[in-house]
Amino acid sequence: MASTPAALAQALVAHCEHYLATIKGPLTLGYSGGLDSTVLLHALLRAGAQQRLTAVHINHGLQPLADTWLAYCEQECARLGVDFAAVALHLPGTANVEGRARRERRLALLQQTSPQGCLVLAQHQNDQAETLLLQLLRGAGPQGLSAMQPCSEYQGHTLWRPLLGFLRKDLAQIAQHWQLHWVEDPTNQDLEPDRNYLRQFIIPKLEQRWPQLVPTLARNAQLQQDAVQLQKQIAAQDWQQLADSQGGISIAELLALSPERQRNLLYRWVLARGMQPPSQKVLNRVWQELLLARADASPQVTWPEGLFCRHAGRLFLLTPQEAAATLSKKEIQLVPQARYQWGQGTLMVDKAKKLESHQVLCLPLGVKHLTLAPVPKGAKLYVKGLHRQVREVWRALGLAPWQRLQTPGLFYQGQLVAVVGVGVNDEFSVEPEADSWVLSWQWTEPKSQW
Fold first, then answer.
1. pLDDT (tens digit, 9 = 90+) per residue, 203-215?
2. Which domains does the chain have, with CATH numbers?
3. Cβ atoms 162, 120 nearer than 8 A
4. For site-directed labelling of 313, which of 215, 230, 292, 435 has its Cα 20 to 30 A away?
């Protein structure tokens, strides 16, 4: 890395110019007014990003000078001709304020970033080293130890960190060269937060013995990123081999993998679905309670982000929404080519000759409206001369337990007249060649499984 302030500044601007040529759409910069984000703001301006840049200041309200910092950032952006936005956060309580403030700040910045745009963050090489040490002390694996990447995807947005190749002292030299001004947060000197304790006390002590500590840790994070990419590739290959069209994976084939590949696949599956991974304790429960359960059992293991379910020899990963029972009622009109969303699926209505298929429900044209609602427990339907218990039919068809709570009953004037997967009440049956309403049910495709 170039050593003089002018050379460092030139290298940073050239680095930004290179990446800006590959990143399309508007840019949202997390702008605190501190040294790091101030240097990055000016580097982006020198790299020609002014027309598509918005600086966003997050006001946590945790410091007496918070409003003063906000006013300063707004004035600086006005002076520079940069679009500016501010977001106020409210963090009640005192438990883990540092962690909650960081998470809420990230979410707020993402909300200010357009889907076609990019969120630009000012973390640098010292931040990378601190993050790796924190993750190591928390017992993280390669995913956590890979720390931050220069360019990554998160919740459908592109995240770009142009400063990861620069030390904090490099940024201070660049700021001095450009004659910049910034605000200082006095809480950075507080040793109570873990990150500050590492920054102010532990890392300086280690650097006395190992002067290249920070670049070495940053290089180690890159090596962990390489390991993570390899794990992702192996998990994706295993997923392709084991997954079926309904988004489940064969438990027998999963157990045929080595324990390391089993754990890797489950962990990567969770990440691929955009969920925060559960603790190792939860993943161990998946292995003990689901993978080794009786063949006819349907256990579940849950954590706040989602749940693993076993059904028919397959393992499923669902979000809480995908697993929740649909309890609402919906009034619908029967008209040609109508589509009605209900819970986790869609009821499609058309007018045609009766189709001989168990996948459709046919009702007489005299029925003009219906109510979609949950099927009551113990409900029966009189179909082809037999009283059929709805949930028993579903069970015999192999419908998953959570889908039984999401499949609608069709009610006419308060009477259950048809059930998806079961049939139509004989009282409303239609002659084979008669015109009729043809109703079919389609499950909503789950969000990307991989």
1. 999 999 999 999 9
2. 5-223 (3.40.50.620), 243-323 (1.20.59.20), 330-443 (no CATH)
3. yes
4. 230
